[in-house]
Amino acid sequence: MTRGTFYKLIQRKKMAFNRELSQFANYLELDASANYIGIAAGKDAEVGIGTVDTEAKLTVDGDVKVSGVVTATSFDGIFTGNADTATALETSRTISLGGDLAGSVSFNGTSDVTITSTIQANSVDLGTDTVGNYVATIADSGSGNLVVSGSGSETASVTLDLADTGVSANTYGSTTKIPVVSVDAKGRVTNVTTTDVATNLSVSGDSGSTTVNLLDETLVFEGGSN
């Protein structure tokens, strides 16, 4: 190949490169300091990396690794891993208590929350769920001396009373009758009756005897010899 033929070939290659470069420049622009290459404003060009089937201005078929900060006005897709920070949950959740306590609160992550709980009715067993001494029931020992009311029922006021002995409340005894009282081992009066006062006084002398009714008669001693 002669020098002239080689020179003409170089010129043709140079012209073809310049033509393709000028067409490529219709889609890309380089800043003055050559810091970046950007899509020319107002162009509809789409760039594909790893694929020719583009779906946006930039379509990447494969993984993308970024060492800096990714900034976007919105995001459509699925995240994996843990976020460093979060402002609020997308969907608020209700946290509830179960078992012997009831209560719930709505939580969306924007602030602390407090669950106000209520003990459910009949949920605390005094013999199982509590500590310390407590009185389960109050009852008479079996002697029937006490009457117990309200023991063993919730919210009831327990009352104690003495059992009736069968003796009627009254005044017993008179000038002619005295009371006869029966008392049990607890010191309670269990029975009361009356009996006549013994009014006949027997008097005996040197000879003979007589009786004197102290209520109706008078005993007189008369003086005399010896």
Walk me through what this model shows.
The protein is mainly beta. It is built from 1 helix and 13 strands. The protein has one helix at 3-24; strands at 28-30, 37-39, 47-49, 58-60, 93-97, 101-107, 118-119, 146-149, 159-162, 177-183, 189-196, 200-204, 209-213. The chain has a 3-stranded antiparallel beta sheet, with no helix packed on it. A hairpin with a 6-residue loop joins strand 1 (28-30) and strand 2. The longest helix is centred in the first third of the chain and has 22 residues, at 3-24. The radius of gyration is 59 Å and the shape is rod-shaped.
Offer a concise description of the structure.
The chain is 10% helix and 26% strand. It is mainly beta and 226 residues long.
Keywords summarizing the entry:
226 residues, mainly beta, three-stranded antiparallel sheet, two-stranded antiparallel sheet, 26% strand, rod-shaped
